[in-house]
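Support reply, case 0932

Customer input (verbatim):
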Amino acid sequence: MTGKFIPSRDQVTRLDDAPSAGGVTAADELFFNLDGRILHTTEDEWRLEVCGVHTSGTHHWVQLNVHGALGCGLTLRTDTLDTADVLRRVDEWLSLAARTGQPSLCTIGD
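Our regenerated output:
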């Protein structure tokens, strides 16, 4: 399956996650833009696997599995469905964990 990256600026006007004319929500777009994305830290390469994007009121939760040297589960709360913001926050978390061991990376699966 191939697809087109949807720039985050296209999502800004749809923060309420209402479906577009084609029935695709901003949460759907975020899922598509994050799933399979590769992030690089100085020590490793990480592949994002999106487990879900959930909305309650004005808050959103993004559930990710992060695959690299270790497999990690991560749930991130955000007020926007902006791809660039979510990627920046995950990258900061991974970089901090790789440099300092804090927060500690947790292993998922066997």
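We compared this against your earlier run and they match. Two observations from our side: DSSP finds two helices and four strands in the chain. The mean pLDDT is 78. Please reopen the case if you see a mismatch on your end.
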